[in-house]
Amino acid sequence: xxxxxxxxxxxxxxxxxxxxxxxxxxxxxxxxxxxxxxxxxxxxxxxxxxxxxxxxxxxxxxxxxxxxxxxxxxxxxxxxxxxxxxxxxxxxxxxxxxxxxxxxxxxxxxxxxxxxxxxxxxxxxxxxxxxxxxxxxxxxxxxxxxxxxxxxxxxxxxxxxxxxxxxxxxxxxxxxxxxxxxxxxxxxxxxxxxxxxxxxxxxxxxxxxxxxxxxxxxxxxxxxxxxxxxxxxxxxxxxxxxxxxxxxxxxxxxxxxxxxxxxxxxxxxxxxxxxxxxxxxxxxxxxxxxxxxxxxxxxxxxxxxxxxxxxxxxxxxxxxxxxxxxxxxxxxxxxxxxxxxxxxxxxxxxxxxxxxxxxxxxxxxxxxxxxxxxxxxxxxxxx
Length: 383
Ligand SMILES: [Zn+2]
Fold this sequence. Notes:
Blueprint: E1 13-16, H1 24-30, E2 35-39, H2 42-46, H3 49-59, E3 63-67, H4 76-88, E4 94-98, H5 100-115, E5 124-125, E6 135-139, E7 151-156, E8 161-166, E9 174-177, H6 187-206, H7 212-234, H8 239-259, H9 263-275, H10 279-294, H11 301-309, H12 320-333, H13 350-358, H14 372-382
Parallel strand pairs: 1-9, 2-3, 2-4, 4-6, 5-8, 6-9
Antiparallel strand pairs: 7-8
Helix pairs in contact: 4-5, 6-7, 6-8, 6-10, 7-8, 9-10, 9-13, 10-12, 10-14, 11-12, 13-14
Bound molecules: zinc ion.
Residues 144, 196, 200, 265, 279, 283 line the site of zinc ion.
């Protein structure tokens, strides 16, 4: 066995535990945050999740302002509005409660409040030196893994384009993982976000930029998600399954922070940009098609992934198609749509989406070398 060279750091602190949100005031005080922006969305407000956090802050007399107008696939406009509020109120940190959208927005605010300009100026890797804004992230899905990643994805609505900002400066200082915060998710959201987490683990594991360290994280993620995703979607109040998913999603986030992803994510972003397909659904629909395409490059990892995800041993010796079929069966069990046409994607825009997908750095580290024509054919196949 040969070992590829790597360096590895996990810059944020991870705090996990049942009812760990009760420690919020104590943690904020350690971070010297006295007047924070609570950022979340209207769905979480309606589900009573925002109140759970503000109740804890109120009880400790911690000062805060609230911004809740974060939409799915957050836009540059939303980032500008939230940044203006952050500056106007003279706040000194962010408590971010969400799925990926509030977290991406929080990271983008940190960039703009510290460096000025607009978020489009910072697209790409390390386009600014530092940020002065600390973020405490509380995930409400399992998930994006965004609570431990150095990425923020913001949508430029005028261009239907999702831009990615990358810097270790925007990794939240603290990720607070409490399984009670994901216990009221609707089943389809639990399924879609769970498949996103699984896709993070699988793509980072197969990535040509993977290392021993990222593999260890990805394997733990696949073990936890494979064991718990069905149970969790069936009953989000199952604390053991919720904890497994929350931790699995966090491990997957660390894995792809380093190893990055692949064609599936490169192609999922334009589906969100052009057609507003939720990120988890886009990845879930694409995953079997991409695994089929990448099977030619398999160096033995497919069988390991299969062993983490399979429900039962069927006794036959492994071939990559078994993994593809297992994922298809999993989507069926989780009631996730199977084709892109089912979620409103139109053939006419395949070429435009493929051009955007090719701009993603994830194509370059996909296990099988991929050209524009391949991406077009893969969209066509998944349609
Ligand atoms: Zn993702």
